[in-house]
Design brief:
The chain is 41% helix and 16% strand.
Length: 303
């Protein structure tokens, strides 16, 4: 398995251990990834054992926001519109685009392992409402686009089979398109979960066109170096997300070695995917603080 495939498989197993997926559904999703039944059962058992041995210092995440509480940035959000543009090797890429009225910069938004969902479109519009024109590439464009998948787990499985080189090529094409639509503006990248990991991959693959990046709870690639990047990085983590937090020291060491401006925000009382207001781990206070810090960060390094 590639590191991203392993990350997705472990995320499915963790969701089962935490009661978000039944055992049957977890095994079905792992099967869609190509895991045989013995390996899938072993992974579930391993994650369950790790959960029993872990002793987080913080308590479980708080209650979800009430329906009357809009997610951070939503009040001024700009509607995102679907677009297509030319991608690598003659392929056509699908995306969501939201243009700021008076752009201070541009932000590439990188989706979770569910594809280009309504939540990611909303986040794209929120950046535009905050003054940063934003583009979210559908990394399942070659497969017909996220909308062609009626089974969310099948979309995740399709993403797991895409070579990492194609992700990087499509995201770089997205940065080129973003630069064309926001001429003369500095560019940033924000990704969530799987997309947070891809944000780190962009940084470690050398992307001098990025002036800033804010990966949300994404795993840092093993042995990764960011010496080819010029980006100022704000990394966002959840204090209860032990699996991804384990890669934080390596990320900070790589950023120190590269001499890049960087900081980390570890949200207390928050787990993996705490920013996603459509998910079960949404933590409104942590999400609001993370959004404030990200917008401040882009104000410093993009505007």
């Amino acid at each position: 398995m590639t590191p991203l495939q392993r990350y997705i498989a472990e995320e499915i197993a963790t969701d089962h251990v935490e009661g978000l997926l039944s055992r049957r559904e977890a095994l079905r999703r792992l099967g869609l990834l190509g895991m045989g039944a013995p390996a899938a059962v072993a992974l579930l058992a391993s994650c369950a054992e790790s959960a029993r041995q872990s002793t987080p210092a913080t308590t479980a995440a708080g209650p979800s926001a009430s329906p009357s509480s809009p997610p951070p940035g939503a009040a001024n959000a700009v509607p995102a519109t679907p677009i297509t543009f030319a991608g690598p090797e003659g392929r056509t890429l699908q995306a969501a685009w939201a243009e700021a009225a008076q752009p201070r910069g541009g932000v590439l938004v990188i989706h979770e392992n569910r594809g280009l969902t309504d939540h990611i479109r909303s986040v794209t519009g929120r950046f535009a409402g905050a003054g940063y024109s934003a583009l979210a590439v559908d990394l399942l464009s070659e497969e017909g686009g996220t909308a062609t998948f009626t089974d969310q787990a099948a979309a995740t499985a399709a993403l797991s089979k895409i070579p990492q080189d194609r992700f990087i090529a499509d995201l770089r094409a997205g940065l080129t398109e973003l630069g064309r639509r926001a001429p003369g503006k500095r560019l940033g990248a924000t990704g969530f979960c799987f997309g947070g990991g891809l944000t780190w991959l962009l940084l470690t693959s050398g992307t001098p066109e990025l002036a800033a990046a804010t990966p949300f709870y994404g795993p840092f690639p093993e042995g990764g170096q960011v010496t080819g990047s010029q980006a100022a990085v704000l990394a966002v983590y959840g204090a209860l997300d032990a699996r991804v937090d384990a890669s934080r020291p390596a990320a900070e060491a790589a950023l120190n070695q590269a001499g890049l401006p960087h900081d980390s925000y570890v949200a207390e009382n928050a787990d993996h995917a705490f920013f996603n207001d459509t998910g079960p781990r949404y933590q409104p206070a942590a999400a609001a603080e993370a959004w404030r810090r990200v917008i401040d960060w882009y104000g410093r390094y993009l505007a």
